[in-house]
Design brief:
The chain has helices at about 25-30, 35-40, 70-90, 105-115, 145-150, 180-185, 195-200, 205-215, 245-260, 280-290, and strands spanning about 5-10, 45-50, 65, 70, 95-100, 120-125, 170-175, 190-195, 220-225, 265-270. The longest helix has 20 residues, at about 70-90. The chain is an alpha/beta fold. The strands form two sheets. It has an eight-stranded parallel β-sheet, sandwiched between helices. It has ten helices and ten strands. It has a single domain (about 5-290), classed as Arginase, Chain A (3-Layer(aba) Sandwich).
Length: about 300
C-alpha cells in the first residue's frame, strides 16, 4: 500500500522582490491538486498553510541586509517548514511542499536530508540557485538555496543537521546563471544538465544519467521550479527565462521518476498567479505532479 501524501503549503514571497508567488499554494489547490491525486488512488492529507509574515509586517531588525534580504524571517519560516516536514516523514508520509518562492526549499530539502534514508535531490530549474551573500548580484535568498543547503551560506540560512552532498545533487533545465555563480557551480561537482545538454542528448538520456548517478540512493527529493519550463508553456512565474523545457520534456522527467519509484518528497515553487492567464501554470503543475504520482498515458 502506498503511503499517504501530506500537502504542506508555504505561501512565502520573501526570497525575491516580485510579489505574488505567495498565492502559489492557493493556485495549486484551486487547480485541483488534491482531487487529482485522490483520483489516482492516493490518500491525501492537506495540512493547510504555514503562517508566513507579509512583507509589510517585517520589522527593521528582521530585514537582514542587502546581501541576504529578509534572511532572518525566511530562516524562521524554513525552520517551521523543516519541522512540519520532519513530522510528516516521521509518520511515514510522502510530502508535497507548495511554494511560495524557492527559498522555501531551505526547510523542505533539509527535512528530506535528515531522514534515515540516503537522499538524492533533483533540482529542476532555469537557475542554479548557487549564489551566496558574497556573490549575489541581487540579495535575493531564493537564488542561494542550493549553496545554503551545502553549507556555503552562513547562519541563519543553514537549516537542519545534514548538508546536501554535491555528488547526490542533480540539476535539470539550467540556462540562466550569474557570472560568479557559474564559476562556483562548475567547480562544485554537482551534476548539472543544462538546456544544451537536453537539446543534444534528449531528456530520456539525461534522466537516465541522473538515475545512474543515484544508484546508491534510497529516496529522491524533487524540487520543481515552474520557471524550468519555457514561458510559452508556463508563463505565470516570477523569473521567466526563454528556451526552457517543453511540456512533454517536463512530463517525461516526472514519468521516468515515477517508474523509478524512489521519490518521497516534492517541492512545487515559483507560481505567480498575478502574471498568469487563467491559472494555467498551476494547472500544468498539477498535471506534472499527477505524472510523478502515477498517471499514465496507457
Amino acid at each position: 500500500m502506498t503511503p499517504p501524501i501530506r500537502i504542506i503549503g508555504v505561501p512565502m514571497d520573501l526570497g525575491q522582490k516580485r510579489r505574488g508567488v505567495d498565492m502559489g499554494p492557493s493556485a495549486l489547490r484551486y487547480a485541483g491538486l488534491q482531487g487529482r491525486l485522490e483520483w489516482l488512488g492516493h490518500v491525501v492529507l492537506d495540512g493547510g498553510n504555514l503562517v508566513v509574515p507579509e512583507m509589510e509586517e517585517i520589522a527593521a531588525d528582521e530585514q537582514g541586509n542587502e546581501r541576504a534580504i529578509n534572511a532572518p524571517v525566511i530562516a524562521r519560516v524554513c525552520q517551521e517548514t523543516y519541522a512540519a516536514g520532519t513530522r510528516a516523514f516521521g509518520e511515514g508520509e510522502t510530502v508535497i511542499f507548495l511554494g511560495g518562492d524557492h527559498s522555501m526549499s531551505l526547510g523542505s530539502v533539509a527535512a528530506a536530508l535528515d531522514r534515515p534514508r540516503r537522499t538524492g535531490v533533483i533540482w529542476v530549474d532555469a537557475h542554479g540557485d548557487f549564489n551566496t551573500p558574497e556573490t549575489t548580484p541581487s540579495g535575493n535568498v531564493h537564488g542561494m538555496v542550493v549553496a545554503a543547503l551545502m553549507g556555503r551560506c552562513p547562519p541563519p540560512l543553514q537549516i537542519g543537521m545534514t548538508r546536501l552532498e554535491p555528488e547526490l545533487t542533480a540539476m535539470i533545465g539550467i540556462r540562466d546563471l550569474d557570472a560568479q555563480e557559474k564559476v562556483a557551480l562548475t567547480d562544485s561537482c554537482i551534476f548539472v544538465h543544462t538546456m544544451r545538454d537536453i537539446d543534444e542528448q534528449g531528456m530520456a538520456n539525461v534522466v537516465e544519467d541522473v538515475l545512474r548517478q543515484f544508484r546508491g540512493v534510497d529516496a529522491i527529493h524533487v524540487s520543481l521550479d515552474m520557471d524550468s519550463l519555457d514561458p510559452s508553456a508556463a508563463g505565470g512565474v516570477g523569473t521567466p527565462v526563454p528556451g526552457g523545457l517543453t511540456y512533454r520534456e517536463a512530463h517525461l522527467i516526472m514519468e521516468m521518476l515515477a517508474d523509478d519509484g524512489r521519490v518521497r518528497s516534492l517541492d512545487v515553487v515559483e507560481i505567480n498567479p498575478i502574471l498568469d492567464t487563467g491559472n494555467r501554470t498551476a494547472e500544468i503543475a498539477v498535471e506534472l505532479v499527477a505524472s510523478l504520482f502515477g498517471q499514465r498515458i496507457l
